[in-house]
């Protein structure tokens, strides 16, 4: 069975990552690639690494015929995305990779993103796309909101622990290190090579990064009361990858056991043996998450380290995993690519 | 149909790359992983990025039962490799990724590698493994000698031009830039991160790099008389990738036309439009070669740029491509992975 | 006035950094360069970037005449260093950059470093070399123990706050990111370029890094009772630089005010305006420390970020600053080099 | 004796490098820093690594009083620079770091840069700023045109050989590798971290890079007849540094001897022993040039490798060297900083 998909925002990194993954997916074919500013160009011009593929030329969304399309990946900025998804035919399955539909509460969206929600009525039907925790809802969803890549990493580490009540939820610290591609292909001075190279830089300091809104929403829902974690992202000189170091109050053995229970049947989540911790590069280019637990010299303190690839498991791989579910395919189809190392 | 393979030297980069590629190959399974110094360890300890795979533990070659093995990938240093391949059961198909069997003339091996050939009788049957040019021989070979990764890159750029007689073969210059993994996982001071980072370093200057021996052998055979190119490799701060810039005397249009003819039906070789040139990262993690041609301001001079991934098309991907041929499988099976970018 | 110095361990990174800084120091000349394994070689062979300097050849320590030497920089591993410093003429001023003399308690040394202290009698006279806090003792010291580079960074951030009692000393978390050169020029697999590139890796997890011993010693002394911080170092793909993110319980305004008071007259410590944070590269190649304070969304939580260059302010620059004091020179002499950016 | 300088374009990399070098120059003080778009900002905001310096705030050029200024460094784009330098008081000494005044022939400027020369009358008095070869003219010049950074590197390698007639001037090939900062702080997609990282990319292929115009001008003048070299620059993942590999026809011994004669008394040019070659990082952050010569296996062929730091010797260090000469100071003043390694 073959399904036809369209990718909106194909000239960005998450769009290109969708194409890369679909290239070896046995049941999907690309029917349309959209990118407004680069409409008319061949994909081999915009992303020469995809030169070997027989791809449609880039086109404007408004010039696109969606009648033969089964599912759309919308890899657009969150502002336009709400408008554009709203304008798509109502029978299309949609996976939105932006922040446009991640927050259930439209007021929260306005507060964190500084603009009113452009499609609050659609928001109501959107399912939060963290596959391992919303699997059943995603299967029957029409609109799935891909998670923030940082938000995904933090949730893989913290959701089972908060749900099981094995850590102090008033003292959670997440120190995150992320590569450049998470910020997209936008032209910003701090993303220039000469600025990032041989550098590390904290940003959105003081727990004000927008992905914090997802933590607030999801962790508070899990705990049944407000949870506010401390969260500091750092930009590191890597093109891909996220690694988080979580400082928690709890018992290391109990924490590890909780992960083993939560992830026993998850094909993409690897829980490491006690005392081992993943490296950022262990998952590069793949849909895997690695999680490790280490007890601290100080009793009652535990460190959790987790790693994923922001473009794969953190966005486009997650999107494809959700697409598999929405289309009735085996969840892991096309996603078992091994990480590339070194 | 499933074939069982063994990988000798599984704790090195080319060995691990074989595992990565086989992980999503539909017709191969790994029956044994050998690594003498790390025998007894799990692969997940030596290469944690392969943690999700169900792999046999590392073992010594002498403890390995090859009776159920169809084909061996020998990813060992060239010295031991000649001895070890000689000792393998005679009915085993073998792909040797070292320099042990690349040079048809055992005297040339001794001259370039500073030691006598340990298996000259086997050398006689070894087929040089540059798939696109030795395809038919490889199909029926028992022992295939994988090429040097630098040597492969140079040959993709130069073989068609020398064969067609469209360039001056007495004035060929190849300036090569290669990432660190080509040197393997050996502990050498110049391969330390702090040494290579923010650095570029020429080595084996004066056209004395060992892969030069492959150029001598292959180009002289093609031309029917001795050909000696000038070849300078440089170590660049990348983990993977080779990019060569070739300075040639010839006509750009004729050169491009020659490539189009030579590579018209090659699934892994992409010839770019006139005036465009590949970047090193365009092929990362994939089995593709990209080649571009640019005419120089100076009449009669042409620049050719070619790129491949040293660990994939330059060694382990090439090996798998040959394995497919030797086992009667479709040549591209398991090798159509798209490059990972950025 | 010119003083003559010798550098022991001149073939390592901290030794070479001493040479770099002395090269433009107006009052110091290099009388001897020692490096046992490379004795007999020219420095231009071992470190070609120093080629323009007229330097003595490398020699064995036992072949060195110390009679004309005023001060020795010992940039050796901690084990040999204790023995070698003990054997030096008693009238020589010595700055030891190893961990050999950092811990006042020889039992603590044995516990953390796994070997008995080889010169406990010398330990008694050693002054801990964190200049800004031991300035007067250093002026009259004969033997100064350079601090750990990680330990220095943490202390610049935490000492004033612990001393002033403005943070909860039972809940201090330091997440550290450090470049490769802190591990020296030793041949270790995890320090290879291909391993570190595009990677981040936590190590000595669970607050068991050896520099923790310096934190224990210094912070407990300051607080008048045992203080145990949580400390996780990470190896990041940079050749130089340390950046720490400290998660503290306290008031941001009070924390910033405390820094302003503590560092008002310190030429090398730059306190940033409220809400700004340093980047790792802001201090590269220089003797400066940058410290920034950001209040968290969560009341009573504050994040402190500090950065220094491990080879300069973290070791060889600190050593030169101490040498200036020990020799009666102006403390900043030769050390006002601006950071190199980008 | 202290001279006061102004820096126009202080918010760019070459402007900031001027500030870095002047910071420890004993005879220069900074009277004004100009940057139109960032006028009103503190330098510590634009370049936090310069935070420790007491610098004037950035201001507009038209708001600047040049009455107390002795010399101006104009680190602006070439278009505006011609206009702005023309408008400066006639008695000001000026060092222009742009391409605005490098080409003696205004028609050549128009041809290579695609716009008419805005100050052809000033062009007549401009002296080409390659210090080692125009030293006497620079001493008495009012307006000095800093060279292109790539052009400087190529000339250090080739000028002595062309002048001495020891190489075939019709067959000169220069393969250049350059870090990102040579392209400045401009926002361009190919300069983003995620694009450049783990990548190598040739550009201005076919010998059409604008610095080629300087090669044409200078080499043809030296040879007394037109000389056209082949020149291919590559962008490499480094923030600083240029390394060139030159493929020449000549005798290695004679080439090396020629360098020794040409550079015997040059404080900043280091000629390496026969067979050794510099690495890019050997000169980072310094005003030194390293040159090495290797004979090729092929008789009559020789490879020359040269390295310099594009921001220092390739632009701002060169500018300061020229400023020293123009102000009657010792040429090396403030410029003997040792390279930073690793």
UniProtKB/TrEMBL annotation, chains A, B, C, D:
Similarity-based family: Belongs to the NAGSA dehydrogenase family. Type 1 subfamily.
Domain Semialdehyde dehydrogenase NAD-binding: 4-141
Membrane-crossing residue ranges in chain numbering: none
Cellular component GO terms, alphabetical: cytoplasm
Protein name, UniProt field: N-acetyl-gamma-glutamyl-phosphate reductase
Catalytic activity: N-acetyl-L-glutamate 5-semialdehyde + phosphate + NADP(+) = N-acetyl-L-glutamyl 5-phosphate + NADPH + H(+)
Entry EC no(s): 1.2.1.38
Function of the molecule: Catalyzes the NADPH-dependent reduction of N-acetyl-5-glutamyl phosphate to yield N-acetyl-L-glutamate 5-semialdehyde.
Active site residues per record: 149
Pathway field: Amino-acid biosynthesis; L-arginine biosynthesis; N(2)-acetyl-L-ornithine from L-glutamate: step 3/4
A Pfam family it matches: Semialdhyde_dh
Molecular-function GO terms, alphabetical: N-acetyl-gamma-glutamyl-phosphate reductase activity; NAD binding; NADP+ binding
